[in-house]
Structures are given as C-alpha cells and as structure tokens.
Write a structure and sequence with these properties.
Shape: elongated
Distance between the termini: 26 Å
Number of strands: 4
Helix content: 40-55%
Number of helices: 7
Strand order of the largest sheet: 2-1-3-4
CATH topology of the largest domain: Glutaredoxin
Bound molecules: FE2/S2 (inorganic) cluster
Length: 160
Amino acid sequence: MEEKTIDLRPVNRIVSEYGNDKDSNLIAVLQQTQDKYGYLPKQALKEVSRLMDVPLTRIFGIVTFYSQFTFTPRGKHAIKICSGTACHVKGAEDVKQVVKEQLNVVEGETTADYQFTLETVACIGTCFLAPVMMVDEKYFGKLTTDTVAGIVDKYSGEKT
Ligand code: FES
C-alpha cells in the first residue's frame, strides 16, 4: 500500500540540526525522525538518504538492525503492560484484557485513530507496584480492572 504524502520539512530541519556527517549522526537523525513521525515513513528515509548522501540500502540496513526503529505507524501514546511474574500473579492479564477491549486492539497493535499502541513487556523493575503499566514514560501501579480504564480514558480525552 502506498503511503500518503507527508510533510518532509521536519527531515530537513533534523538533518540541518545534526549536520550531514553520515558516520556520526545518521542514527541520531533516524531517531529524531522517528520521534517526529512516530515511525519511519519510507519517504522520510529517502529524504534522509538524499540530504545526507547515504545509500538507501544502508539506511534500511540500520533501521532493520536496531529494534528501536519501526516502519509501522505507532500511536501517540505507548501503553506497556508488564507481564513479569509479580505482575502476572497480581492480575496483569485481567488488566490487559480491559485495555484490549477498551481500545479494541490486540497486543502489538495501534488503534485506528493512532492514539495508542499496546505492548506487553517483561518486568520493568517496579514489582512492588504490581500490576504495573507504563503510558509513555509514566508508571501506573497497583492497577485493578476498575482503575486502568480510567487511566486510559484520561489519555484518550487529551487534546492532540
Ligand atoms: S514483574 Fe512487573 S514490574 Fe516486575
């Protein structure tokens, strides 16, 4: 499926901020580009290739090598539900089920409005708060099937 045409001006800005030293700045440019669009659109990668004079094949090689990069559009908010042992024992599966139904997605999916991407992650190191989820960089602990829906609702109601 063909991507819709995107505004490439941010790519120009990012490359000019970092300079076009391809060896030291390419990964940083790709990270910033992904932060800007939420993923790495092919048009943006072609523009990075053109501006930095780096073969597109090399860029694709880097993007596919590092798991932090994605070609798939992601939601504005990343919801990560811990599936570690402590969280599992304290009901993480039930919590996750509520979020899946609320957002109408399965794990790894992004909602149709691109507001949320739902992921399951291994122990995130705050077992004393089990069951835990993160929304972007923020932790929410001691979740119940009642409280989790309200948290997701709060993010849903945010203006973009
Ligand atoms: S098991 Fe979930 S935070 Fe450790």
